[in-house]
């Protein structure tokens, strides 16, 4: 295997940002980034050329890709009673088995179901956690989808921690949420991509669908495949080889279509939609299309700032709230923007979890537990404000 290098640069103006947003121009891949930094996957033979191109930027060589990947530990132990550990990452099979085990043990409050199958035929398994059982609560539910971009393993781990807390926490506050809401949680929204990151390419982020590329490129960025300003304003790519390829049409990929269909089926009761991603430490809200404030801007900003403050109390981690466009970049066709616009959900957020670029998508497993606990601190604030604002 040819080792590649992860590099980071800070972009200080719009021209530099545009250079960072088009890494294909230099023969490299953009892993993640925003208006402040970007992580690039750099073949060693062109690193010196890239460094020359980005000479005017603050560029930092982080480390060998192999070293970072070796820090990640994938579970090899048997899972007991569905309870996962928070010092390791898990395979798709393990995560789905955990969901089934938890639902079996907690059958009065939890049940698993599938929202459909992926391009390669894998189940998109979700869990419903509810005190109401088969009878839905009449006044609201929350929905948490995660990992449309599959190289971000931390998001699935945090999602699994949320499930664990809803089912096993002794905190009165967390258990009280189930008096008001039904929770629907899909830990892995792109099962084909997630599996591929474990078997073949750790940095894979798209689906695994054949997309008509004349040179054999595979996959669609599922978070650019929803029908909200699809492929407009430079917010996605029409190049099938790009990591931000928007697909051949809105909902062209089965995973995005399955999410659309399920969300639509519960839309009359949908109060809160949350999508987890990494990295950057942002609490994002609509839209990614342009800088026009949404009508609910003040409410979103207030709740986001309160959550950001709570996130920092435990470990001092700094989160920033704002719209996708203003804090990150132009991004169109996202699940969050589509849910906000088409389904009129009361509150829709996208989280970019740890970190700010040191590890990026290769967040070491020793950061799973602090990431999860600080996230729950902020989620408590959001749930309090959600009830105050919308369940009056």
UniProtKB/TrEMBL annotation:
It comes from the Eukaryota. GO terms for cellular component: extracellular space. CDD domains: M14_CP_A-B_like. One of its GO terms (molecular function) is zinc ion binding. Transmembrane segments: none annotated. One of its GO terms (biological process) is proteolysis. Its cofactor is Zn(2+). Keywords: Carboxypeptidase, Hydrolase, Metal-binding, Metalloprotease, Protease, Signal, Zinc. The active site is at residue 352. Residues 88-386 form the Peptidase M14 domain. The keyword Metal-binding applies. InterPro entries: Peptidase_M14. The keyword Zinc applies. Belongs to the peptidase M14 family. This is Zinc carboxypeptidase.
